[in-house]
Amino acid sequence: MIRYVTTTLPYVNADPHLGHALEFVQADMYARTFRLNGERVFFNTGTDEHGTKIWEKANEEGVSPQEYADEYASRFKVFADIFLISYNTFTRTTGPAHMQAAQAFWQRCSASGDIYKAVYGVKYCVGCELPKTDSELVDGRCSLHPNKEIENIEEENYYFRFSKYQDKLLSLYNAREDFVVPKERLHEIKSFVAGGLKDFSISRKREKLPWGVPVPGDAEHVMYVWFDALVNYISAVGWPREEGNFAGCWPGTQFAGKDNLRQQSAMWQAMLMSAGLMPSKQIFIHGFITAEGTKMSKSLGNVIDPLELSRVYGVEAVRYVLLRHTSPFEDSSITQEMVKEAYTANLVNGVGNFVARVMKLAEDHLDTPIPLPAQELQLSEEFIKEVQTFHFHTAMDFVFEIIKQGDEQMTKEEPYKKIKSEETKEEAKHTIQNLVRILVKVAVHLAPSMPQTAETILRAVRENKKPENLFPRIDK
Questions:
Q1: What is the CATH number of the domain that holds 406?
Q2: Does one domain contain both 49 and 99?
Q3: What are phi and psi of 353, to 5 degrees?
Q4: Active site residue 221
Q5: Are residues 364 and 267 in the same domain?
Q6: Element (H, E) at 28
Q7: Among 56, 122, 306, 406, which residue's CB has the most CB atoms within a 10 Å radius?
Q8: 145, 281, 360, 466: which is the annotated catalytic residue?
Q9: pLDDT tens by residue, 265-308
Q10: Residue 125 catalytic?
Q11: Is 51 a member of any domain?
């Protein structure tokens, strides 16, 4: 069985931001950890390219929706590559294989009697691409997109019988207490479903929104963006081709932000049930990145560009901050000052200083590199458990505790002094060898989060040579 990991597919209606980096990097650390533990892992990410927002943005820029989607999809792919995301596939929802899978999925749900045509009036948030009830609105607007007018839509569309799956969804949640992580989000979605489900629209009239996957057998309609996009989780692994990877990969572990809770853990699960497919394996819901408690917004001028951060501090430093200095489960504030402080204290004075001190001693006083037996290159069970339960920050703390122990041993044993005396030289060499082994353990456990740094350290150990400064001091 292959461990399948997937992010959500971000909309291509704007450039990638720090929230995208957070989700990508969390999923990447998860995937890399289990690969290093000897498992086969398939990692999916990509872009969601249909819907009203993309149609409107393309019109604003005076290009076709496909041209617009191609440009922004390429930006997201470059973004993922810059941040060292080790994906196996980059799924685009405008790709022919995905569009065919979305149509096949529609036909499955239709055959189950769960798709029908009706005229309903709904209040609709373009920002969320979701209908909203009065109880979800604040002063008549969506709480997540207060700058957008709520649209009142009344037209004939196709609908999915979401209401049919209330009891089945609740049974799923009750049977699997870790189906949604953290528990607070599971309780939230259980409460939402228990409050009663309404069928939701899964199509738009082509004359009003021509940009979407055509509805099978009805040229006047295109699929509602969420119905289309959610199918990517299985189209990415070969569904509906039985000879593809699907059977060996599904169900998978999904990473998503808290604004995706309903779509991932209720709508998509009901759709899978309708199509006769297994529910997801697990859904991890992370919080937002904020600036001192306020959601980042261009209009407020508090947006931090992850690419600019990476140009200043390096990509792996940004990965480090996102993994260790944010909560995996709640909103987290990131500021320029916090990034600089974490970089200086923990990378410059922490990892970088420890590597330089140990490898300088090794280069000067060890005749040959220490051997690296396979057992010393394995991840610890404690570390793996932290990652498997999405505690990325405590997994990172585990690594820095190793560094702390190494520093304490250096201070206590003082090999840099004892190596100068013939009487204590052999003892000092033994201490230096132990410190190098500690350094190997650091590198092994940094590999899922900071793979280039880990490889640099291991190469230095194999060559018995102090590397160039890993993290230069930044004064600005």
A1: 1.10.730.10
A2: yes
A3: -65, -40
A4: no
A5: no
A6: helix 18-36
A7: 306
A8: 145
A9: 999 999 999 999 999 999 999 999 987 777 665 555 667 899 99
A10: yes
A11: yes
